[in-house]
């Protein structure tokens, strides 16, 4: 256990030095970090128990039951929503590219500068 004691002592010493040097806001952030990290690690350790890793009741049921059909329909609907949102974002990007080309060819962007700083 000695191998763990020395790094922990160094961490505590460094935190004490940081507290003396930093203003109150940074000290508050250090205190939040000191309490959040151990609590988060304990929580994650409890959530990773084998009993929590078991499948849900839908997975243990019959593959042709109404609950399984409803779960599959819900997953398909959510995938469609994601698909349409991504397609909309892609369409907007293509629209902006097409519009920029159209404005550039029509001379509607006189005086505008590119990212390099040169005039168009």
Provide structural commentary:
The protein is mainly alpha-helical. It has 4 helices and no strands.
From the N-terminal CA to the C-terminal CA, the straight-line distance is 67 Å
Low-confidence stretches: none
Largest sheet: none
Question: In what range is the share of β-strand residues?
Answer: under 5%
Query: Judging from the principal axes of the Cα atoms, what is the shape?
Result: flat
What is the H/E string? HHHH
Task: Chart the SSEs and their pairings.
Blueprint: H1 2-21, H2 24-47, H3 57-60, H4 66-106
Characteristic key phrases:
0% strand; 120 residues; flat; 4 helices
Quick recap:
Helix content is 74%, strand content 0%.
């Amino acid at each position: 256990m000695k191998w763990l004691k020395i790094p922990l002592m160094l961490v505590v010493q460094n935190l004490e030095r940081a507290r003396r040097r930093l203003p109150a806001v940074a000290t508050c952030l250090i205190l939040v970090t000191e309490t959040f990290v151990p609590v988060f690690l304990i929580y994650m350790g409890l959530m990773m128990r084998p009993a929590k890793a078991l499948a849900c009741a839908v997975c243990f049921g019959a593959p042709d039951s109404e609950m399984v059909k409803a779960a599959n329909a819900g997953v398909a609907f959510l995938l469609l929503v994601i698909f349409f949102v991504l397609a909309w974002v892609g369409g907007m990007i293509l629209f902006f590219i097409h519009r920029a080309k159209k404005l550039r060819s029509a001379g509607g962007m006189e005086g505008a500068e590119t990212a390099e700083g040169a005039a168009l």
